[in-house]
Each structure stands twice: as C-alpha cells, then as structure tokens.
Design goal:
By secondary structure, the protein is mostly helical. Helix content is 82%, strand content 0%. It is built from 3 helices and no strands. Helix 1 packs parallel to helix 3 and helix 2 runs antiparallel to helix 3.
C-alpha cells in the first residue's frame, strides 16, 4: 500500500507540475514580452529560466514531502495521504505562481521605464 501511495503521489504531483509549467510558459509569454518592452529575446530567456526554477523548486518540494506524515496502511489512509500531499503541492504551485507574477510585474515595470528612457537610435542599413 505504501509504495502504491508514494508512486501515485509522485505521478500526480509531478504531472500537475509539468502541466502548470507548460501552461504558464505558453500563456505567460505574451505577458513577459509586454513587461520587457517588446523585447522577445529577453522575454523568451526569462520564460525559460522561470520554467527551470519552477521545476527545481516544485520537484524538490514534492520529493521532500514524501517523508512527511504517517505511511498509509489502508485504502482510506492512502486517499487521505494522497489528498493532503497533492493538496499541499498544489498550494505551493499556486503560491509560486502568484509570487512569480508579482516579481515579474515589478521587474517588468522597471525594465519598461528603462527602455522608454533610452534614446531611439536609427537602425543601420
């Protein structure tokens, strides 16, 4: 029972992490381009770095929480085990999302201010 519960937890939590990372990466690109003064290269690079950091923190958190709590020995205990661990992982994912959005918005405003204060240079060619 314990091994099955651990395996299910890892599959569910890591699956949710991958889905959220892909969704945020895909849909956040427009937001990042806007935040970085239409600089698509900077937005793509930042987006990739955010995804890598997101995976590292969340997969680290998911694997660390394996050792927390009592090991389930019955099906009802396994359900409680899974719901509490997956629920905690989802709360952390949501918290990270709002933290990232707040940080990006603050940083993006500063970058936009910097870009708008730079003189416009004519393009060569």
């Amino acid at each position: 029972m314990v091994e099955i519960a651990y395996l299910l937890y890892l599959l569910i939590a890591i699956g949710i992490t991958i889905w959220v990372a892909r969704t945020l990466s895909k849909n956040g690109k427009v937001f990042l381009v806007q935040c970085f003064g239409q600089n698509e290269e900077l937005a793509n690079s930042t987006n990739h770095l955010l995804v890598v950091g997101f995976y590292l923190v969340n997969i680290g958190f998911i694997t660390l929480t394996l050792s927390l709590g009592n090991e389930p020995t019955t099906i009802p205990e396994a359900i409680r085990f899974l719901s509490s661990k997956v629920g905690l992982a989802v709360l952390v994912l949501g918290g990270m999302h709002f933290f990232n959005m707040s940080a990006i918005a603050r940083f993006g405003r500063k970058v936009n201010e910097w870009f708008s204060s730079q003189p416009a240079y004519p393009q060569a060619g």
